[in-house]
Amino acid sequence: MILPIIAYGHPVLKRKAEVINKDYPKLKELIENMFETMYNASGVGIAAPQIGLSIRLFIVDTNPFAEDDSLSDNDRNQLKSFKKIFINPIIIDEKGDEWSFEEGCLSIPNIREGVLRQKQITIQYHDENFNKHTDSFDGLLARVIQHEYDHIEGVLFTDKLSSFKKQLLKKKLLKISSGKLSFDYEMKYFKSSKKK
Q1: CA 33: distance to chain centroid?
Q2: Predicted TM-score (pTM) of this structure
Q3: Known catalytic residue: 148?
Q4: Residue-number span of the structural domain to which 100 is assigned
Q5: 48 part of a folded domain
Q6: pLDDT, tens digit, for every residue of 7-47?
Q7: How far, in Å, are 96, 146, 178 from residue 122 at the CA level?
């Protein structure tokens, strides 16, 4: 089932997500819905807070990046076959020179900005069967994982931009959060109960 994606401005996107256990209700169905939602929005990753659940879960499928002709054959092959589920992940190491790459986000549509991240990560996580893994990734794989990991930490890629860049994006972000723009997929907006 395709779910609405939570738009910028919703408090769930700024909250540190909770650890879950293997008895989490309908986990398999939730993961299937997340993949369907991500593919419908042409994304390469989506985190549970982006569908309104403040839990430590995200999924990644970097296959669309494999179509980039500017990448080496090795990079394209690595990206083409990478599809993973990360439950209760913890990044235990980040290293390497920081590099900039233009990132976007399904919760912040039509905005792309250069974000600095370290090249290599080591991450501990559980898969969908709650088997524990510790893996290292680099390059674009590391970047996609870091971006989704930020979501479960309550961090958005716009939080990593300079004050000047944030100021330039302020009007666009306000339009997104207030639902004044339409997108190719269903978005869910935060409605404050406070009287203005």
Answers
A1: 15
A2: 0.94
A3: yes
A4: 5-188
A5: yes
A6: 999 999 999 999 999 999 999 999 999 999 999 999 999 99
A7: 12, 10, 37
